[in-house]
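Collaborator request, handled under Task 6.
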Amino acid sequence: MLHLRIISPADRTDEIVALAERTVGVAHLAVLTGAARSPQGDIVLCDVAREAADELLEALGEAGVPQWGAIAVDGVDLMLSRRAEVAKEEAPGEGADAIVWESLAGETHEESTLTVTFLAFLTVATMLAACGVIIDSAILIVGAMAVGPEFGPLAGLCTALVRRTPRLAWRSLAALLVGFPVAMLVTGGFSLLMDWLGLFHEAKFLAPRPQTAFIWQPDAFSFIVAFLAGIAGILSLTSAKSGALIGVAISVTTVPAAANAAVALSYGNWSETRGSAVQLALNLLGIVIAGTLTLLAQKWFWARQRARGPARA
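Structure tokens returned to the collaborator:
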């Protein structure tokens, strides 16, 4: 269940209450008259089944609530209520399969913003991967994958393509197109510094590396794995199963490929630089294609669900 808190001018409260009452899947509707101070008005509270939330939010948006009021949505971890159970049974579909588009757009908007924190995480992850490349450590490579924040902008780009929101698309592209070059540039400098300190050695980099050679040797599985990871990542976001994102993070070779390219470039190894760049491009492309197709499939599926049993009575 999701909990909605709506601030409404007094003259629009009846309209909002009517929308909530007409939505199958809504429970625990309450009105606090005159409780809001900024902006002034009433507060309308209700709980809604996740599978019915998108239609209610869409109706509230069409009514103009975000323009002259406010809508806050919170997830409810525990709900002990027979009425809530009935609401979930009445709503079409299953909550685990439902997409709350406004929530997805808000989450991807935040995660796809180019910030100092984003750059710091991506740079640290790339430097960790560089260490893993030099000592041929699969553990460090996996750790770097888990630290990398690049799935946020990729998910934002997929969402932007499906919802046709150019601003989110440009924001996501900016994070990727600025983030990776900055991380690679810093990692290249880090590699040269470590070499000067005697901690990195070109001989180690050129020696056989059975644990990490896959990073700069892309093949068909590079795209296949990225494609499957893109599906899993988007499903984890839309179903609120964020724990699955960890598995996605350690299955794609974006950060390690960027790190290997940076180290190879610092040593003038053009062959590995090209191979790593291709690996990076294949992973990014596979995730974006898979994520976009997954969102389109979910959008089509929920359109059919709503056509069979509309959430609004």
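The cover message to the collaborator said: "The beta strands are 2-8, 26-37, 40-48, 70-75. The mean pLDDT is 88. Please let us know whether this matches your experimental observations."
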